[in-house]
Write a structure and sequence with these properties.
This protein has 242 residues and is an alpha/beta fold. 43% of the residues lie in helices and 15% in strands. The protein has seven helices and seven strands, in the order βαβαβαβαβαβααβ. The chain has helices at 12-23, 36-49, 66-74, 99-124, 148-168, 193-202, 211-221; strands at residues 3-7, 27-32, 55-59, 81-84, 131-135, 174-180, 233-236. α5 (148-168) links the parallel β5 and β6. The longest helix has 26 residues, at 99-124. The N and C termini lie far apart (36 Å). It comes from Lactobacillus jensenii. One of its GO terms (biological process) is monocarboxylic acid metabolic process. This is SDR family NAD(P)-dependent oxidoreductase.
């Protein structure tokens, strides 16, 4: 069986992952929170390209209650891969952050992914070569001023994956974090061209990452030959910061 659920499938990295995995023979749940049209159009496009596979757009609010999360997981067809590509940040000084924004950020980036991992575990353990991949950040290793809470949430994913991977390693379920640096996605569109040019000048590779720079590693971690890789955080940064 090759069926994965991509949380945050409508984002720049999520869409790149979906496209890469579809071409590699995977059926996919394409999760969205608000962008129903984007998810539906992505599912339709992939279905037309790969008609022998299933592509299902599926909604879940990452601020949902525990009962709603349980009902969501119970309604899924079996999956042997869960990819968490969702995430938000609130840019600014920590001392000026709205408390509700802080809670939202930690829930979406950290707490709800952990809850979903807990709820999906029994299903994932049924299959060989099952995988969990979290999208972390270079800021989980080298924290960023003005993104303190975001940095904390991504660092926590690294430590959680290390611990949890040891609990399930004997079962064949692997748990890893992919930690991009600066990526050319809508999340970074808030910054001016001058700021982005300055960031590019600091990156040894001389450019922002593309979605395919991340999806390449997702595809390869999903291969059976990657069974021995677990508990790791792989930094995909073009040599920046790490």
């Amino acid at each position: 069986m090759k069926r994965a659920i991509i949380f945050g499938a409508t984002g720049g990295i999520g869409q790149a992952i979906a496209t890469e995995l579809a071409a590699d023979g995977w059926s996919l749940y394409l999760h969205y929170s608000n962008q129903e049209q984007v998810a539906s159009e992505l599912a339709d496009k992939l279905m037309s390209q790969f008609p022998e596979q299933d592509f299902i757009a599926i909604k879940l609010d990452f601020l949902a209650s525990n009962m709603e999360l349980q009902q969501f997981c119970q309604g899924l067809l079996p999956v042997n891969v869960a990819i968490f590509a969702q995430g938000i940040t609130h840019y600014g000084f920590f001392g000026e952050q709205d408390l509700d924004n802080l809670e939202q950020e930690m829930k979406i980036n950290l707490l709800t992914p952990l809850k979903l991992t807990r709820l999906l575990e029994s299903n994932l353990l049924k299959y060989k070569h099952s995988r969990i991949i979290y999208l972390g950040s270079v800021y989980g290793g080298q924290a960023s001023a003005l993104e303190s809470a975001y940095s904390a949430s991504k660092a926590a994913l690294t430590r959680f994956s290390q611990a949890y991977a040891r609990e399930v390693a004997a079962s064949g379920l692997t748990v890893n974090v992919l930690a991009p640096g600066a990526v050319d996605t809508p999340m970074n569109a808030i910054f001016s061209e001058d700021v982005l040019d300055e960031v590019k000048s600091e990156i040894p590779a001389g450019r922002l990452a593309l979605g395919k720079d991340i999806s390449f590693w997702v595809k390869n971690i999903l291969k059976p030959e990657s069974d021995y890789l677990t508990g790791q955080t792989i930094y995909i940064t073009g040599g920046w910061l790490i």
